[in-house]
Description:
This protein starts with 6 loop residues before the first strand and ends in a 15-residue tail after the last helix. It contains seven helices and five strands, in the order ββααααβαβαβα. With 171 residues, it is mainly α. α1 (20-33) packs across α2 (40-46), α1 packs across α4 and α3 packs across α4 (61-82).
Amino acid sequence: MTPTRDTVLLDVDGTLADSTYHHALAWSRSFAHFDLTPPLWRVHRAIGMGGDKLVAVVTDDDVEARLGDDLRARWEQEYSHLLDEVGLLDGARDLVLMLRKRGLRVALASSGKKRFTDHVIELLDLPDDALSTVTTSDDAEQSKPAPDILEVALRQAGVSARSSSATLHMT
């Protein structure tokens, strides 16, 4: 017997929101503020993981130890300036509504900051019952690529990530 799947987890940045390049640009500007110039392609490839991991991946452990918190604070400022330019990817709203119409629970599991995720939810302009839960970086101990945020979203949506009916696919 094939297990029934009744919940869909969606990421926000790069899945529903066309924000990947905005994040890369904000990180690049943050690094430049501290006279660091990692190649933009390296920054771009790291988008999707939490900022607590991104700094060391893009630079090294020494930069993380010396400047990690300052770089993350500066990134948040830089991204805030770009937020009004962030839009939805084509079909994002329709995807969520179609999943709900098919009877699936839709949970958002973002490694982003709550206020940035809230901005995208506002852009989606969904009915109140469209989303079963929304989790952000505030809800998990470890950021992506660790599965913590996904497991929290599943639990809040009423599904166990360890059950036989749950399958996690991270992109």
